[in-house]
């Protein structure tokens, strides 16, 4: 018998000199059979099943109570945030894949594999192939989740396919990491340690959403406390990040096969190409915004009218970025609710609602004033002076005190302020509202719709010190209400009277006068005024 000198480990063990085509014919089906077996074991592994169960629990928790926070999803934001729960299946796949690849070492059966046609490099390939159904399941979960959100009546925006693909690829990458770790160490403790390290990296990226290095992690998060941006301004390097993840899958998978003793020009070439692709994608995804992108964000911020569509009905003009048009009916409902308690000449006056974004890029403004002068000039050119600002967040008002319910309060009070005063806040800082005006603005905002009332109550429950401050689009500007007037407004909201609406309309001129006090308003409404506030609790400007 003649022994071959080739380095193929299958031929070395069997001692045959059969042609390479014959070896491939035997090895390829065997690899697929082994991959199928390992796939079934992986999908039934307790770590993977527990991770999928936790993922389902998060989804069910969201579905059963009908969480109002997701009643008005912005799909370009949901396209990346939908992947956060997928980190659970990714962790389960990493642990299950690593334990599956180490099974022969754990059971002391590794020497028995030497009698098989499928050598260790091919077994590693089989473990890698067994990860594909788990990634496919992650893709189906992602499709189901984003499909559910897109089917909501309040959904706006556009789905971003490259962002959506990142989650399933992360699940695949986690499994590849688990298999590769099995070629580096046979200890069962290595995979959990790696999982902790990846978790720390992911957490660091989640709390440093302005850092470019976060794109080197599994998922690149954005600031969840920032309001959504129109789809045209979402300049995420989604394609480059997906290419980065895919290149890592190939690179780490090929490295695992090489570590297991694999040879061949194609394998080495694939490893080299994957390394080059990973480096190119890494550079591309961290370049930041271009000058053109920055100018575009600035144009949308300072001059939104040029990028919006407006509709007018019964004196109410509503201007919104095109993709947010489905929300205009909700804004109109709040506006009509406020105007329902105003006298005819006030309710019949023309009003404009304009959607705006601030600050540019959607990050925290840190108290920076919005471009009020640029907005006023933009409204004047568009023929819509004194337009009331509304943002890119919305909810039913029952979102549990998050930024979405705060957006409802901000808009309802802003429109009520416009109705009561005939103007809009023009200061780059908080505008203090005092006396009967403050009470009337808050009462109108709370009585506009059930949702606005619930959101206003949520704001009160989270406010300390008596007064209420409502920043405009998370900026340094906005409206602030003196504590005593706010207390009186909530007394009227919590103890509604059918006579209040009639009395308010009848005494509108006096109640909206700047000099009218809370005591005078209580007298006009025929109710008891709230107790005086000590001098130490009074606010400047009132």
Report a brief summary of the structure.
Helices cover 56% and strands 6% of the residues.
What would your notes on this structure say?
There is one protein chain. The chain has 542 residues and is mainly alpha-helical. Helices cover 56% and strands 6% of the residues. The chain has helices at residues 9-14, 20-43, 46-63, 75-81, 87-101, 103-106, 120-129, 132-150, 161-184, 190-207, 238-259, 265-285, 291-302, 328-339, 344-347, 372-382, 403-421, 435-447, 450-461, 483-494, 498-506, 508-511, 518-525, and strands at residues 309-313, 316-320, 351-355, 388-390, 430-433, 468-471, 478-481. It has a four-stranded mixed β-sheet with strand order 1-2-3-4. The protein has a three-stranded mixed β-sheet with strand order 5-7-6. A hairpin with a 6-residue loop joins strand 6 (468-471) and strand 7 (478-481).
Question: Can you tag this structure with a few keywords?
Answer:
542 residues, mainly alpha, three-stranded mixed sheet, 6% strand, elongated
Q: How would a textbook summarize the main sheet?
A: 4 strands, mixed
What Rg, in angstroms, do the CA atoms define? Answer: 31 Å
The share of residues in extended strands comes to: 5-15%
Helix content range: 55-70%
Strands of the widest sheet, in order across it, are 1-2-3-4
> What low-confidence regions span 5 or more consecutive residues with pLDDT below 50?
1-27
Intertermini distance:
104 Å
Number of helices: 23
Morphology:
elongated
Order of helices and strands: HHHHHHHHHHHHHEEHHEHEHEHHEEHHHH
Q: What structural category characterises the helix and strand content?
A: mainly alpha
Mean residue pLDDT: 86
Number of strands: 7
């Amino acid at each position: 018998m003649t022994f071959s000198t080739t380095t193929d480990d299958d031929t070395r063990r069997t001692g045959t000199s059969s042609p390479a085509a014959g070896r491939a014919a035997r090895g390829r089906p065997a690899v697929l059979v082994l991959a199928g077996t390992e796939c079934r074991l992986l999908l039934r592994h307790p770590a993977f099943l527990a991770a999928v169960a936790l993922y389902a629990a998060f989804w069910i928790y969201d579905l059963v109570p009908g969480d109002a926070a997701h009643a008005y999803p912005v799909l370009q934001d949901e396209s990346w945030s939908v992947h956060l729960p997928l980190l659970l299946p990714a962790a389960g796949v990493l642990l299950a894949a690593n334990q599956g690849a180490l099974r022969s070492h754990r059971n002391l059966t590794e020497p028995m594999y030497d009698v098989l046609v499928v050598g260790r490099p091919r077994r590693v390939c089989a473990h890698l192939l067994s990860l594909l159904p788990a990634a496919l399941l992650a893709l189906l979960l992602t499709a189901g989740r984003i499909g559910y959100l897109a089917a909501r009546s309040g959904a706006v925006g556009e789905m971003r396919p490259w962002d959506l693909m990142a989650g399933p690829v992360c699940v695949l990458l986690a499994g590849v990491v688990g298999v590769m770790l099995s070629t580096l160490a046979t200890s069962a403790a290595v995979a959990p340690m790696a999982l902790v390290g990846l978790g720390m990296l992911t957490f660091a990226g989640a709390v440093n959403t302005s850092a470019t290095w976060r794109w080197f992690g599994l998922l690149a998060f954005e600031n969840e406390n920032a309001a959504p941006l129109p789809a045209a301004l979402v300049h995420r390097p989604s394609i480059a990040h997906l290419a980065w993840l895919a290149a890592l899958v190939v690179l780490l998978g090929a490295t695992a096969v090489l570590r297991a003793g694999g040879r061949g020009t194609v394998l080495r070439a694939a490893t080299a190409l994957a390394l080059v692709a990973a480096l190119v994608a890494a550079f591309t995804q961290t370049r930041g915004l271009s000058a053109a992108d920055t100018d575009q964000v600035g144009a949308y911020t300072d001059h939104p009218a040029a990028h919006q569509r407006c509709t007018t009905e019964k004196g109410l003009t509503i201007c919104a970025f095109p993709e947010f048009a489905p929300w205009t009916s909700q804004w109109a409902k709040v506006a009509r609710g406020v105007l329902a308690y105003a006298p005819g000449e006030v309710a019949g006056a023309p009003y404009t609602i304009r959607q705006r974004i601030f600050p540019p890029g959607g990050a925290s403004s840190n108290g920076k004033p919005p471009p009020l002068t640029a907005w006023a000039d933009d409204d004047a050119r568009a023929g819509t002076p004194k337009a009331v600002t509304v943002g890119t967040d919305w909810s039913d008002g029952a979102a549990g005190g998050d930024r979405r319910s705060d957006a409802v309060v901000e808009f309802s009070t802003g429109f009520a302020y416009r109705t009561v005063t005939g103007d809009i806040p023009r200061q780059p800082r908080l505008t203090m509202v005092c006396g009967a005006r403050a009470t009337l603005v808050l009462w109108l905002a709370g009585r506009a719709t059930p949702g606005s009332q619930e959101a206003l109550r949520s704001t009160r429950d989270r406010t300390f010190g008596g007064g209420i401050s409502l920043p405009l689009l998370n900026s340094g500007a906005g409206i602030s209400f003196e504590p005593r007037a706010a207390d009186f407004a909530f007394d009227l909201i919590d103890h509604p009277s059918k006579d209040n609406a009639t009395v308010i309309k009848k005494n509108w001129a006096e109640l909206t006068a700047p000099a009218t006090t809370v005591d005078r308003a209580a007298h006009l409404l025929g109710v008891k005024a709230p107790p005086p506030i000590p001098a130490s609790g009074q606010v400047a400007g009132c």
